[in-house]
Each structure stands twice: as C-alpha cells, then as structure tokens.
Design goal:
The protein is mainly beta. It has one domain: Beta-galactosidase, Chain A, domain 5 (Distorted Sandwich), CATH 2.70.98.10. The protein has 2 helices and 22 strands. The strands form 4 sheets. Strands 5, 11, 12, 14, 15, 16, 19 and 20 form an 8-stranded antiparallel beta sheet that branches. Strands 6-7-8-9-22-18-17-13 form an 8-stranded antiparallel beta sheet, with no helix packed on it. The chain has a 4-stranded antiparallel beta sheet with strand order 1-2-3-4, with no helix packed on it.
Amino acid sequence: MLPTLQRSKIDELDAITINGADYRATVLLQGAQLIHFSTKYDSDNWLWVSEKAEYNKGDSVRGGVPICWPVFGQFDANPQAVKDSFTDCRFDLTQHGFARNQIFNIDLFNPLHVDQRLQHFSSLTLSLPNLEDFHPKLGLQVKFLFSAHGFNISLITCNLSEETVNFSQALHTYLPTDDIEQTTIRGFDQVTYSDTLDNWATKTQQGEVTFSEGVDRIYHAAPTLVIGSPGLSPLHLASKGSNSTVVWNPWYTKAHEISQFAADDYKKMLCVETANAHLDYITLSAGESHELVLEVTKIPF
C-alpha cells in the first residue's frame, strides 16, 4: 500500500502527515517545519518538541526542525556582506530570518521515490510563495524524503535577482535525549569552532562534545556526526552544502529566558544545526542556486 498524505490542523496551524507502512512524518505548512518523524521499528519521535510548544500563526514552534533563512541568528551578528544584501528587505530579519513564520505551498507529493541507492522514499516538496516586497529576489524550496531508515531535508535557495546575494541559513534541528549530561556528539574532534558564550573565542574541539554547562558553538565544518544518549539508539547525521554546524543547549541558566520552554527542558534536548553561519555564509551570483541537505538515520553511513 502506498504512503498517504493527510491534512489536519494543530491549533492554529495547518499540518501534513505522511503515513507509510514503515514510517510517519508530520510537517507544518508554516515554516515548512518538520515536527515529527518515527518508524515502526522506533515509534518514539526522533525529534524533540517542547511540551510547552504553541501552535500559533506567526510564531515558530519550539522543536522539530525550524528553518532559519535567509539569515541565521541575530541579524546584527551576521557579517557585513550578509547585512548589506538585505538592506532594503521589508521583512523582519531580527532573529533567524523570516521563513520559519511564512506559509509554504505544496508543490509535489510523490508517495514512491527511488534514489540512486535503490532505497524507497516518499518525497514532499514545499516552496515559499513569491514575495513582492522581498528584496533581493530569492526563491526557496524545501524537499523532504521519508523512509523506514530515516529522513532527508533539502533547503534549496535560488537567486532570481540580477545581483550577487550573500546569505546565512540553518536547519535548526532539535534532538531528544534522556539525560543531557550523559549525551555525547562524535565527529568534531580537532574541528575549530567559535564559542559565542566566550566572546566568540576561536577554539579547537578535543574528543567528543559533552554537556556540563550551556553550549552555543559554531563549528566551522560539517562532518558526519553520531549523537549518543543513554536509553536511545544513536542518531547519525550527515550533510551536504554545509560549511558549519551549530551545537546549542541553553542549560538552566538561560532556560527561563526562552519562550515555549519549561525550566527543565534543557535536560531533554540538544540542537545540532546543519548550517552556513557566521563567516561560513553562502555567496550566490545571479541565477545560481544552492542546496543545503541534512540526512538523519539510525543506521551507520
């Protein structure tokens, strides 16, 4: 039986759920935000969503995979080249851009897609409608692939203007853990990173990433990663078109400052963000496109 697409509403937001024989995925049309993925072999959500999450129009939901585009982080913290590209933009770019608050269109649902490895997927393609007031003129398409083995998200940016555009971006993935203090990330050994909590100091990772305090780092590489947490199967993350990876946990010291976030939520989550952030921004000439890809599985690559 082929996978099916079902429309629903979660409070104020329209959602799409794809039900396959071996997997289930839910995407919000606001922000093209994946909020649930599970398989018949592992029925718990592979993504973390706060129990305090609010499904309101105009507000990004705390959890899943929000899309940060066409800027990542605080607008003023971006390099001057990025800020100069959006001088005349009328949309609010203050924090993580505006794509996460926009309603996407459904372009295509293909219940049976076969990739080069002969694996079977369902594919869902969403796009940001033309925005008359958006300058510079960019196109954004989000493509999802879902299977019994995991999921892929592709963020495709097209420069439709006649000028060069510099932009930053991220797939701001929230992942679950049973105990943040026992959680590790393998793959960053000897990678240079910017520590935003230490005045943006440049440091080099030694061994695995562990958590005993707040973490907000931009690693200037995008290696294949393994996320380990007691009681949970390891998650394997791979990327393409990414020059940086952001690792974030607010700890108890900042948990109270975050919307849709309980005081002890920091114990249950971490963010590992596939990105082109800070100095790793993307430059697109007129007519060019760029694809940022995240692949998540519980089977080693």
